[in-house]
Design brief:
There is one protein chain. It contains nine helices and seven strands. It is α/β, with parallel strands linked by helices and 263 residues long. Strands 5-4-1-6-7 form a five-stranded parallel β-sheet, with helices on both faces. Helix 6 links the parallel strand 4 and strand 5. The radius of gyration is 23 Å and the shape is elongated.
Length: 263
């Protein structure tokens, strides 16, 4: 205890202050800003690493060999983790550019949160991107896909249909799929709807989603047996984009390791 107190006025005192600041920031992200829970988790991981490297070496005076082995093991795992995250993020960023100029016959617009006040920021981004694409490609039919969550006032697909029509898109060019509750279901049900209406399943499918989501959407699309054409909806909120690009790394690895038909 005396050794700990003697360090509070030195660099470790500053370290504790930084950790406290990160903890407060994480609290705000988690409980005051909806959708930023992953950024809060990142803050907690940083706190853990700072405390480990700041205070764990103090055990070296009593258990030098043990301390060295644990520190080196954690460092190796940390470096490998950073490399994996960086490589995955690079793939996600590369996929985020999509192919917005490519002509497709059918485009699935993936839903996002509908709030009591109307579309969320992410959903607005997708609606405006879909309107721009449909205006630039008059022969494309859009399938707006998304059901109604327990905390949503109406279906995501219904909101997208109404807003696209309001923005001047011919309602005959917008087909509605209102049952999906995940990305897998968005794509699977939309392909079923296209087949039901046309008599054949498309071999190539345009998928419009937030740019950070396109790589994972491509994995689902190919799993459904269709060629993927990504159409990005640029995220208008910078902090939201940073949060979701980080979160998407976890989503990609969850799918790679565990699979499953989830969002």
């Amino acid at each position: 205890m005396k050794e700990l107190l003697s360090h509070l006025g030195s660099g470790r005192g500053l370290l504790l202050a930084v950790c406290l600041g990160l903890a407060l920031f994480a609290f705000v992200l988690k409980f005051c800003l909806p959708g930023y829970g992953f950024s809060a988790l990142v803050c907690l991981v940083l706190i853990g690493l700072l405390l480990f490297y700041g205070f764990f070496p103090m055990l070296g005076a009593k258990w030098p060999v043990f301390t060295k082995i644990v520190t080196r093991t954690v460092t190796v795992c940390l470096v490998l983790g950073i490399l994996v995250v960086a490589a995955t993020e690079a793939v996600i960023i590369h996929a985020s550019f999509g192919s917005p100029e490519t002509q497709v016959d059918y485009m699935v617009v993936l839903g996002a949160k509908v709030r009591p006040t109307g579309p969320s920021a992410s959903l607005w981004d997708r609606i405006y991107a879909a309107a721009d694409y449909l205006q630039a490609h008059p022969n494309t039919v859009a399938v707006v896909s998304g059901g109604q969550g327990a905390d949503e006032p109406c279906t995501e697909a219904g909101v997208m249909f109404d807003e696209l029509v309001y923005l001047g898109i011919d309602p005959k060019r917008v087909w509605v799929e209102e049952e999906a509750t995940s990305t897998w279901e968005n794509l699977h049900f939309s392909l079923d709807l296209i087949e039901e209406k046309t008599g054949q399943r498309p071999q190539r499918l345009g998928v419009l989603s937030s740019e950070y989501h396109l790589f994972r959407a491509s994995l689902f699309t190919r799993a459904c047996g269709a060629e993927f054409v990504g159409i990005p909806a640029r995220t208008s909120n910078l902090s939201q984009a940073v949060n979701h690009f980080m979160r998407e790394v976890a989503g990609v690895w969850h799918y790679i390791l565990l699979g499953g038909r989830y969002d």
